[in-house]
Amino acid sequence: MNLTKVKAIIEALVFASSVPVSLKDLAEILQLHEHTVKQLIYDLIAEYKDGQRGIRIKEIAGGYQFVTDAECADYVEKLKKVPRPNPLSQAALETLAIIAYKQPITRAEIEALRGVRVESSLATLLERDLIQEAGRKDTPGRPILYTTTTRFLEYFGLNTLDALPKIEEWTDETLLDLVMNSD
Amino acid sequence: MNLTKVKAIIEALVFASSVPVSLKDLAEILQLHEHTVKQLIYDLIAEYKDGQRGIRIKEIAGGYQFVTDAECADYVEKLKKVPRPNPLSQAALETLAIIAYKQPITRAEIEALRGVRVESSLATLLERDLIQEAGRKDTPGRPILYTTTTRFLEYFGLNTLDALPKIEEWTDETLLDLVMNSD
Amino acid sequence: MISTTDHSDHGTYRIKLDNFEGPLDLLLHLIEKAELDIYNIPIARITDEFLEYLKDIELLDLQAAGEFLVMAATLMQIKVRMLLPKPVPDEDELLEEEEDPRLELVERLLEYRKIKEVSKTLRSWEEEGSRYFRRSGGYFPDQEVAAALDMGGEVTLWDLVQAFKNLLESLTPTLELEGMPDEQYSISDLMREIEEKLSRKHEFFFSSVFTGLPSRKAIVTAFLALLELIRLKRVKVFQNGEFADIEITKWEDNKR
């Protein structure tokens, strides 16, 4: 694999990640020495910087991340006012609502409640940093548990999770009943 | 403002949006003619393409969006915690094909065409944000109408619905006949 | 016993019909396999082949089975209609051409074939599209603007709570009997009806079981009732030659 190709892959990896990508992760995926990867990343950073581009790669929080150039900020800000189509689909919203009220909760438990597979809503919510993986449940198979994030609170303007509107009828017993009767 | 600068801003705008940005929105933010913006965007698309980069700008769902290069897919996949979604089942795909061509359409109309019940396909497609509920039909029972989403266009890499393969003989009259005779 | 409330059983509908996306798909397969002209389907032959596949149905999933049974009933009705002598046209009337009983079925098959073709194209685009990754909309302190954009800002807390409440309501345990046999026509009622009819007539044609039934559900129920009677060896069905309708007789009468 030639260097141009490797650099392209690094570019794709840094771009696609929802969190800053560490040197270690990059090196592991590419099966190359961290030293080599670091060289190439610095090349990439320089290329973007010198090219007077609108985006560049930044070293943040122990990893690398694409960001928009500071000089374009005023314009990017205007984009906010453009109406966005379908910010969060109804399906994703329902899944998020269940996680918000029943956290920590596993995928199977969410699926029992919604009656459909929720793989793709979970992916969307993880991608948007509204939910996170929070350990594993101590049951057979040790399924992943999901909780909401700080970002979730910010997004809905909540101080703490206690500020979520109460829904009284929702006890664990009714939940159990519903799950038992839902299929 | 020189052209390099404008191009940088366009780059930043396309990057910053997680959904495809339309020519219209870009032109409005930049206070430039759509024609001018289009020229510059095509320059940008070509630059990324010729540069053997890991990312490129794609014309999709009526707008422009950065995506990783297809050749880097295997590596990007290793990075993603969330695996890429399973391909749609044949049943869901056929249901989606009908909705794409006949939208807005009700469940009963889809069922008349497929000869089977489509409840669970509809649930899957809604969950994956490929279709949406779009009002109700003004007939007895006021059944829900379904249409495809912007995500549908993105998912199949289409710019508009017009890019779907043409089916000439598929008329509304035959559909209507079928529905009338279906029960 | 075929149970009408057996749908908690997660009907694992594992038969060779599994390879087909429903009755239209199976029909299309039979026609294409035999390289038949879709505009001139030999209906008797296709009906037999279709029923051959149906033999293996396990009635675990009444809904899926029902879809195939409705088609079987349709095929048989067409077959019967094709056998009926054409009425001699009244001399005063315009010589209207008799409509081919197969016409509607042919139209449905043609439509369905188009859907299948389009699905193939969509499948290849799906495969191609899965190789492009969008930027993930994560949240970075350094990139607040971009992160805010990802959210769209149009979903409110109220939307979230509403979504949850709707879900609660939708979970109120209700047994949806859609696709299940018609409550007005239970399987046992129709079994009784068929047997009563046999005690009067000794034998009658299969297609006459369906005449006068109001809905697809009722037709499915009738079919199931018949299958149950066959299983319990209370009636027998047979066909006198390739083009004949299926006859139903009492089990003990069947000494031919």
Labels describing this entry:
heterotrimer; A: alpha+beta; Arc Repressor Mutant, subunit A; 9 helices; 5 strands; globular; C: mainly alpha; three-stranded antiparallel sheet; disordered N terminus
Structure report:
The complex is a heterotrimer, with 2 copies of chain A (183 residues) and 1 copy of chain C (256 residues). In chain A, 50% of the residues lie in helices and 14% in strands. With 183 residues, chain A is α+β, with helices and mostly antiparallel strands. Chain A folds into 2 domains: 3-78, Orthogonal Bundle (Arc Repressor Mutant, subunit A); 90-180, Arc Repressor Mutant, subunit A (Orthogonal Bundle), CATH 1.10.10.10. Chain A has a 3-stranded antiparallel sheet. Chain A has a two-stranded antiparallel ribbon with strand order 1-2. In chain A, a hairpin with a 2-residue loop joins strand 1 and strand 2. In chain A, helix 1 (3-16) crosses helix 3. Chain A is globular and about 55 Å long. In chain A, 36% of the residues are buried. The model of chain A is unreliable at 170-183 (pLDDT under 50). With 256 residues, chain C is mainly alpha-helical. Chain C has 8 helices and 3 strands. Chain C has helices at 23-33, 43-54, 62-83, 103-129, 144-151, 157-170, 187-201, 216-231, and strands spanning 203-205, 235-239, 246-250. Chain C has a 3-stranded antiparallel sheet with strand order 1-3-2, with helices on one face. In chain C, helix 2 packs antiparallel against helix 3 and helix 3 crosses helix 8. The longest helix of chain C has 27 residues, at 103-129. The relative contact order of chain C is 0.11. At the A-B interface, helix 1, helix 2, helix 4, helix 5 and helix 7 of A face helix 1, helix 2, helix 4 and helix 7 of B.
Termini distance of chain C? 28 Å
Which range best describes the helical content of chain C: under 10%, 10-25%, 25-40%, 40-55%, 55-70% or over 70%?
Answer: 40-55%
Strand fraction of chain C: 5-15%
Count of beta strands of chain A = 5
CATH fold-level label of the largest domain in chain A: Arc Repressor Mutant, subunit A
What structural category arises from helix and sheet content of chain A? Answer: alpha+beta
Helix residue percentage of chain A: 40-55%
Structural class of chain C: mainly alpha
Shape of chain A: globular
Strand fraction of chain A equals 5-15%
Order of helices and strands of chain A: HHHEEHHEHHEEHH
| Main beta sheet of chain A | 3 strands, antiparallel
